[in-house]
Amino acid sequence: MKDEKRKDVSWQGKCSDTVYIAGSEAEGHFSLINEACSMIIPESAHSAYDKAAQYFNIKLWRIPVNKDFIADVGAIRRCINRNTILIVGSTPGFPHGIIDSIEELGELAFSSEICFHVDLCLGGFVLPFARKLGYPIPPFDFSVKGVTSILADVHKYGLPPKGTSIVLYRNHEIRKATAVLVRTHEVNIGHFVMLIMLHKLNCSWDFLHFFLTFYFLTYSCEVLINSILFNLMAAGKQNQFVAGYSENTREIMEVSKRIQKGIKDISELFIVERPDMTIVAFGSNVIDIFEVNDILSSKGWHLNALQRPNSIHICVTLQHVPVVEDFKDLRDAVQTVKQNPGPISGGLAPIYGAAGKMPDRVMVQELLVDFMDASC
Ligand SMILES: *Cc1c(COP(=O)(O)O)cnc(C)c1O
């Protein structure tokens, strides 16, 4: 059965919503996932994949990135075996804002007959417009052979509220395979998609006794779906989606460049490789960058801490457009840390610093879980 399933694209589709679509227990898929399947992701891929792997007990291989901080296609190729169901490429990766080589990964997935999921969570509402505007963005969508699913977070650069994301599949076969149908006592049909689906199937069941969902969340809340539409309209300046998003994209791409220049002008700092979009990661060889982060946090800036190398990133949004001229807070923070090395009281630098240095993942997990548990 395992061999059969290996070639079965619609079954594999159950894993290609990467993040949260499991199989149907009745068909034995779930147990197959548990016992055999693996996904391979670059180290720069988002932690959502670890979460999915942990929830569904899928074996996860995280492969170190290459010297350019992108997916190491050769190393991923060497890791693929008959249990591999999916590889992932990010456009761009969350930590450093750098785009993986989607064409090479697509070729690899296609020739290995496995699914390839493109994580366009951050780039979904920026890259298509940036490309049209002439920024050098390599292909990242279904035009690339081998891409089987794409995930775009609306709740990031699409601008609606949290909890809204879109998953796109290359074909209906894969999408249909994500449906989970359950016989229940409930008479509650949660979403119009189910009705359309049942109608399309021309089914003769008493469908009020079935529950069909395409999503991990049992009720994909219509309020959220409406809010996506409403916000897309507003963000896209009513019916001119493209014009609105293009204008936003141009502004944040330009601001990112200016931020990169501002950081480069501070000699204590370095930028991690070459950011492709609007996420700029930077670190320092001479001072503790996490202490810089603590000072910036106390002044109202929200940057994310990263490791390997220790660095922090700024995710540039429209809010940064009016304040970009001034790098005073960053300059001051760097000078303060340089003159007074040592943890800022109440800051997170010691936690990040310690976690980065501990070789034992279990210890790091215990430390962080205890810290979070105690603090909220
Ligand atoms: C945000 C993000 C995700 C998913 O995170 P959610 O907040 O749970 O939607 C996945 N990948 C990347 C690259 C992201 O930036």
Q: Give every kind of bound small molecule, once each.
A: pyridoxal-5'-phosphate
Helix count, DSSP H or I runs of 4 or more residues: 15
* Helicity level: 25-40%
Largest sheet: 6 strands, mixed
Q: Looking across the biggest beta sheet, what order are the strands in?
A: 2-1-3-4-5-6
In terms of structural class, how would the helical and strand content be classed?
A: alpha/beta
What is the radius of gyration computed over CA atoms, rounded to a whole number of angstroms?
Answer: 22 Å
**Beta-sheet strand percentage?**
15-25%
Low-confidence stretches: 13-34, 187-212
Mean pLDDT: 79
Number of strands: 12
What global shape is seen?
globular
Span from first to last CA?
46 Å
What is the helix/strand order? HHHEHEHEHEHEEHEHEHHEEHEEHHH
